[in-house]
Automatic annotation (TrEMBL):
Residues 1-31 form the signal peptide. This is Beta-xylosidase. PROSITE patterns: PROKAR_LIPOPROTEIN (PS51257). It comes from the Bacteria. It comes from Streptomyces collinus (strain DSM 40733 / Tue 365). Gene3D superfamilies: Neocarzinostatin-like. Keywords: Signal.
Length: 442
């Protein structure tokens, strides 16, 4: 005997509730990034299940925390914020088990104190299976904000929303009943170091030994005593002079250059050179006017500056396969990138990468699921030393693969590698998926 119309309707509602059981919250437990963990706080939460579920609003208590990667930032710094829902306001209201990786959480973190506003946070589409009538596991969301004011800035958990992708695409907003929620974290921001905008220019780029060169400067401290000095590579020569900046921070002075090894001229405030209170070096060459002895020939040569370039040992990477129903890490290695910096100047370089979503047979794997573990090697004799980027997510916004710092003389040859790992959801439809990793050298 078939089911009555009422039983059929009830079965359909139960099926839909399987898709909307995340009506309050859900997600896989995620590890917070390294940094300062915030205190767990409780706050009343009002959640509205999707209308199709037929469930009334749910009022409960959420336990959450907010952590940051830097509790003592400076104005201008970017702070990474992690909002973790430790105990959601409710659990799975049905007897139906919910599969893994069907929800994507988003939310807000409220800022207070010296800086007000909110931080938008989002989490990956990841959760463990949830048995019927079981409590939902915790989940984490991350975002960033730029510090604009000095002082104590409080962070409190705010509203959050769960988007579910199981049978139907549904949203379940949960709001703080009496905002703001209790403060979970506090950072103390200080005034950032002002950017050094000091600059100099020379009246000429070369001169005979003993000739004077005019040095003009701007944006120095008004009334400051400024030292003009010759440089031979990274070392200061004995050729110096002193000028005083006017009320506008400008000056014009004369420096007599005798040292034939001079490669540039600098100007700085204080007792010795400091990149924070100086400008230059501005290129300057001392002409070699030494007479050629009888019966001799004077030999000269020129070292020409080159370019900054990179090459790749291939343009395709095949990651390891994963099983449908299990998912997990699909791993591989980045094709080795060779960076050649033959510019011979003071500038370092940065190699960054970003990746698209991985598209496949009617589905996709989000870009945020690709992570890497960079490594960088410096060829012997290179003036610069390569530094590998941090291990972590690549994503749509990108991350640093490797870099070298600015310096008096930079350059060299470097090889960059990285282990790759794509976190594939367990029930991703079978088939081939591909994404594009774009590397940019600046």
């Amino acid at each position: 005997m078939g089911p009555t119309p009422r039983r059929t309707r009830r079965w359909r509602w139960a099926s839909l509730l399987g898709a909307t059981a995340l009506a309050v919250t859900a997600g896989g437990a995620l590890a917070c990034p390294a940094g300062a963990a915030g205190a767990n706080v409780d706050f009343a939460t009002h959640c509205i299940p999707p209308a199709v579920s037929g469930l009334p609003p749910i009022d409960g208590t959420t336990t959450a925390s907010v952590s940051v990667d830097n509790t003592s930032p400076k104005v201008g710094d970017t702070v990474t914020v992690t909002y973790t829902v430790v105990t959601p306001a409710a659990g799975n209201p049905t007897d139906l088990a919910l599969p893994a990786d069907i929800m994507t959480p988003t939310g807000k973190v409220a800022l207070g104190g010296a800086q007000t506003g909110s931080v938008t946070v989002a989490g990956p589409k990841k959760n463990t299976p949830v048995p019927g009538k079981a409590p939902f596991p915790s989940f984490s969301m991350t975002g960033t904000f730029t510090v604009t004011k000095a002082g104590q800035i409080t962070l409190a958990p705010g509203d959050y929303n769960i988007h579910t992708s199981y049978i139907l695409e549904l949203d379940t907003p949960c709001t703080v009943t009496n905002p703001p929620a209790p403060t979970s974290q506090t950072v103390t921001a200080t005034d950032g170091t002002p950017a050094n905008t000091r600059a100099i220019s020379l009246g000429s780029a070369s001169g005979d030994p003993g000739a004077a060169v005019t040095v003009s400067g701007t944006n120095f401290t008004p009334g400051a005593s400024v030292t003009l000095a010759g440089r031979a590579g990274a070392a200061q020569t004995a050729d110096t002079a002193t000028v005083t900046a006017n009320a506008q921070g400008s000056f014009s002075g004369s420096l007599t250059v005798n040292d034939k090894t001079t490669t540039g001229v600098v100007a700085y405030e204080g007792a010795s050179w400091s990149a924070d209170k100086g400008a230059g070096p501005a290129a300057y060459v001392v002409n070699d006017t030494t007479p050629v002895p009888a019966g001799s020939q004077k030999l000269t040569t020129t070292v020409k500056a080159g370019t900054l370039s990179m090459s790749q040992a291939g343009d395709a990477v095949a990651l390891s396969a994963v099983d449908f129903g299990k998912g997990g890490a699909s791993t591989g290695a980045l094709r080795t990138v060779t960076v050649k910096d033959y510019r011979g100047g003071p500038a370092g370089w940065s190699l960054t990468g970003k990746v698209t979503d991985f598209t496949g047979p009617g589905a996709k794997i989000e870009a945020g699921r690709l992570s890497w573990n960079p490594a960088c090697a410096t060829k012997a004799g290179s003036p610069s030393t390569c530094k590998a980027g941090s291990a972590g997510t690549v994503g749509l916004s990108g991350a640093t693969l490797a870099s070298t710092p600015d310096g008096t003389l930079t350059g060299g040859e470097f090889t960059v590698d990285a282990g790759l790992s794509l976190d594939v959801p367990a029930f991703t439809p079978p088939g081939a998926y591909s994404g594009v990793l774009t590397l940019t050298l600046t």
